[in-house]
């Protein structure tokens, strides 16, 4: 274990109890209690190991079981928390509404989960079914139903390890209203997480008097609170509370290993299995375990006389591998840490779901001669060939002159070789529909000027096809459609996704425009058909050539 991570968190409750004149605590004086918090986040449908044998719930169960046994032998207790976003990302899961994921989490024994923004990629009826399936609470204090003014989920839950009272509060990014599918959010309000946290903490201290309070959040970790065009995240949350009011924030959403290289600065290329120092802000530790079940985070606390002390923290890789190049064209994938065997009971549970999903997805639909780029660190920063392919498909189906979409809607790359429907669904897992709108050139100029303000390093960063322009400050220059200057009086057809047309990612709303049509065609199905009709795909022909530039 890496024992260099130490720090004391003074639980504000002690002062509160003294102020109220209450000498009684739920804990014994001078007794040391051991509490281990395990955590994952941004699972995104990865219930099964990948093609290289990495992660998956079967290996995760083995790891969690080992830790529970170890901690129990030391007289301690374990809580297992998820930072949310169980949904969306792997076709075998998506086609089955993440049923295998929640059943697997039940078998592992999760204790609570924050509601993530991608839990709203499906209608609320699907989310309620998932909630019924799960044997652990879905937590979010800041999500309300507009029509009733009531919270949609439990704001907190209480655990009593060894007789201590540990409250866990759930919080969800208020960006969900902007980046979620507006079609499913019409009667839902996302209030300020920090504001709701303060209210819940006050309520807990008055009514439950917990010995420690933990927040499980889906808000993101941004160095020094510099969240850019994203909503405020965990750093800002910690700073908004009374010092030490939260012992720990278990986070998600930004999909980072939160391992600090220096104060307010994360390690950018964290190496699995190496030491990891979590962030600490205003007396609160902040942790996050990257994504997809690649790691299980482990925070070992000791509670003594009203104080929570973090004595050890680790990010434990779940069968992650690296590639070694031996030269002469020989490459090998090797484990960063000893192999974790898969739990056979979990395999028996999940294998039928995996088979059922794969049967629908393995059929070849086309091929490509080189990589189509869809990685997160590309599609949110620059124009890519995969974005161009997707947009070409939208234009072909709708007869549009040009197309626009937010880069955050592209979730994976496609490698050279055969393409299957599974590949397409990994790229576009959200089930949005093709929409198009006919509008005057003057409206096109206004629309593209607004969209061009969406900055890199956010899901809103726009991808274009058949558009040329130079973006300077709050304006655009040299705007062309299909290589020709825009005519203010000419009518143009623009293709996009229903998500963006409804105002998703903060794009101008188009679904109330007189020329708007929602085709009803699912985006992944549109791309699948386009690939089938245009294979083999030439990746180089799709490569952007500087038509769009930011200055």
UniProtKB/TrEMBL annotation:
Q: Which InterPro entries does this chain map to? A: 5'-Nucleotdase_C, 5'-Nucleotdase_C_sf, 5'-Nucleotdase_CS, 5_nucleotidase/apyrase, Calcineurin-like_PHP, Metallo-depent_PP-like
Query: Gene3D superfamilies this protein is in?
Result: 3.60.21.10, 5'-Nucleotidase, C-terminal domain
* PROSITE patterns the UniProt entry points to: 5_NUCLEOTIDASE_1, 5_NUCLEOTIDASE_2
Q: Name one GO biological process term.
A: nucleotide catabolic process
CDD domains the record matches: MPP_UshA_N
Keywords, in A-Z order: Hydrolase, Metal-binding, Nucleotide-binding, Signal
Q: Which domain of life is it from?
A: Bacteria
Gene Ontology cellular component terms for the protein in this record: outer membrane-bounded periplasmic space
Residue span, Calcineurin-like phosphoesterase domain: 36-254
Q: What terms describe the molecular function in GO for this protein?
A: 5'-nucleotidase activity; metal ion binding; nucleotide binding; UDP-sugar diphosphatase activity
Please give the SUPFAM superfamilies that the UniProt record associates with this protein: 5'-nucleotidase (syn. UDP-sugar hydrolase), C-terminal domain, Metallo-dependent phosphatases
Please state the span of the N-terminal signal peptide per the UniProt entry: 1-26
The family line of this record is: Belongs to the 5'-nucleotidase family.
**Name assigned to this protein:** Bifunctional UDP-sugar hydrolase/5'-nucleotidase
Q: What lineage, starting at the top, does this entry show?
A: Bacteria, Pseudomonadati, Pseudomonadota, Gammaproteobacteria, Enterobacterales
